[in-house]
Amino acid sequence: MGELRLMKGNEVIAIAAIRCGGDAYFGYPITPQSEVMETLMAERPWEDTGMVVLQAESEIASINMVYGAAGCGKRVMTSSSSPGISLMAEGISYMAGSELPCVIVNVQRGGPGLGTIQPSQADYNQATKGGGHGDYSLLVLAPASVQEMHDFVVLGFELAFKYRNPVMILADGVIGQLMEKVKLIDQRPRWTNEQIAEISGSWITVGKSKNRKKHVITSLEMDSSIMEGNNLRLQEKYNRMKAEEVRFEAIECDDAEYILVAFGSAARICQKTVQIARKKGVKVGLIRPITLFPFPEKIISEYATKVKGFLSVEFNAGQMVNDIRLAVNGKTRVEYFGRMGGIIPPPDEVEVALHQKLIKG
Amino acid sequence: MSVLADRIKEIIKPENLVYAKSPVLNDDIMHYCPGCSHGVVHRLIAEVIDEMGIQDQTIGVSPVGCSVFAYKYIDIDWQEAAHGRAPAVATGIKRVLPDKYVFSYQGDGDLAAIGTAETFHAVNRGENIVMIFINNAIYGMTGGQMAPTTLVGQITSTTPYGRNVDLNGYPLKITELLAQLPGAAYVTRQSVQNPAAVRKAKKAIRKAFEVQALKKGTAFVEVVSTCSSGWKLNPVDSNKWMEENMFPQYPLGDLKDSSRADADLYRIKG
Fold it and tell me: Does B121 sit within 8 Å of A76, measured CB to CB?
């Protein structure tokens, strides 16, 4: 019952995938997340639960293997890091277009290009605004602890099947490599064929009986009027996510004059910044978006009339800050502070930035 | 006219039936051009599925190219893959449903250009799938551009003065390369330009599906095919051009017929 372990974020992704009853993992090694597949291969879940684990020849192959297995109604996942996710972009777009559920983990590293293997949050736009071609959205979860790496695999599969949509866990090298205490779920059984038929029987490709119409997994439609309808249906689904799935954490915001907005490992640093600033008598709060899509725009919009300003703290050149500005819509000041290239700023550096950019400025 | 119509009506009776379309091939009118080989190969696959009684156990993976709509014509479950990715998609399906029949259906651009990596590694893993490879030496769907299998000197819309090896390299004999891989169990090259060839091709497709059931490794069937529209020839001349120009470069027959290689041949000593 709720086994406690000391584990790395990447290792926990693997264990959670097995324990939540995952059917398959397809992946390709890339730093800083190779421990995910290494852990899976060491655990050999195919001997116990029957879960398939396969090392593909590329991230392109991985995501297309995910596509194939997901089309059979199975709970399938992959993981990679930034350059690998770029290679998967085509397949992710196809999965969104074909409405296939899956969980994709991105343990971000710095870019652009080969960049660095050090942590980064520079794939925020790629994750939340598409990344691949066409009008689509992923449901994006941003873990800030090893426990959340675990919990979001479980939650990710629930949401992926609730919406028939790919879910991305947007972690970073810090959370992937960090070791922390984690409470693991007990082993859950994989879905039986009967359960799969009940959950996804109307669309999966598992072989058609004579009397049932054939099922076709595709994103292709040559008739523009039908294709527009398909797009409208997708947009309606994304709007439902916006209405029902927004998750965030608000820390010491009630009396705050300034609010930091940060996700993932940046939010952990900002939690300390809040303490440092409050000790000095500055009323600072923190909003931590847990879902990056849908973005918690309502809570930010509500605080926009109460605070003197927001500071978006990101390990990138300022990507989420644009979503904050849209939510604030000119009602108060919104500034950005961040570091790039794998540099993780300490809490007091964030506090200095808060003074320079908002309080003094 | 009406006399002729009456005469035809007299002939079209169940007792006079010598051939029937497989029920696994549905009634939709195919979008393929006159003289194209795709329709015949579709029919053969449908007949094999029907005769083996595996309609309820078969999942097809269609490519990007002229046969992108293969899923419209054969009455089984299908997944439509991204360009070149059909072997990876088929791998994903087969790995989670190991007892089903899974096949990919791909053209030369899909299988031997953009999807080369997926093709090689699926065969090298010895995935227990069937891969059907339509080689007509041209990109049909996009309007007749050079394919990896385009012959030297062959005119296409992107080789308007003929394929030039200095610029474009050589026709890719991918089937010969795949036959070298230890994961390949059955590799054959067929054609469908006359009844004798069609019968042989059908036998090969049937055998490929049977190999899959035995889980002996990948079964790979190339069909050297025509593209009248792309080649800008009528169907009769297309068959002639194929026999005269394609067959010497892509000779018909089995290239490999065995089980997936024994792992001990490749094992480390220590």
Answer: no
ipTM of predicted complex: 0.97
B145 CB within 8 Å of a chain A CB: no
pTM over 0.80: yes
Domains of chain A with CATH codes: 4-183 (3.40.50.970), 248-359 (3.40.50.920)
Q: Looking at CA atoms only, how far is residue B96 from chain A in angstroms?
A: 6
Answer yes or no: is pLDDT of A250 > 90: yes
Residue B27: C-alpha distances to residues B22, B42, B45 (Å): 10, 13, 15
CB distance A68–B89 less than 8 Å? yes
Q: How far apart are CA B197 and CA B203, in angstroms?
A: 10
Least confident stretch, A22-31, A137-146, B12-21: B12-21
Chain A contact for B222, CB < 8 A? Answer: no
| Domain positions in chain B | 29-260
pLDDT at B1: 58
Nearest to A83 by CA among A42, A129, A114, A45: A114
Q: In chain A, which residues have their Cβ closer than 8 Å to the Cβ of B81?
A: 64, 67-68
Architecture of domain B29-260: 3-Layer(aba) Sandwich (3.40)
Question: With bands split at pLDDT 50, 70 and 90, how would you rate the model's confidence at B49?
Answer: very high
CA distance A76 to A99: 14
B40 — pLDDT class (breaks 50, 70, 90) = very high
pLDDT tens for residues B120-170? 999 999 999 999 999 999 999 999 999 999 999 999 999 999 999 999 999
What is each CA distance from B76 to A208, A271, B86, B106, in whole angstroms? 6, 55, 16, 17
Q: Which residues contact B248 (CB under 8 A, 6 or more apart)?
A: none
Give the nearest chain B residue to A51 (CA atoms): B96
Chain A contacts to B (CB-CB under 8 A): 23-24, 26, 52, 54, 56-58, 60-62, 64-72, 74, 76, 90-91, 94, 98, 205-210, 214-220
Q: How far is B53 from chain A (nearest CA, A)?
A: 11
Residue from A166, A164, A175 nearest A91 by CA:
A166
Cβ contact B77–A220 (<8 Å): no
Q: Measured between alpha carbons, how far is B140 from B125 in angstroms, rounded to an integer? A: 30
List the single residue in A72, A76, A220 with the smallest CB-CB distance to B80: A220
Question: At A314, which helix (H) or strand (E)?
Answer: strand A309-314
A192: number of Cβ within 10 Å: 9
pLDDT at B229 over 90: yes
Report, as an integer, the average pLDDT of B250-257. 98
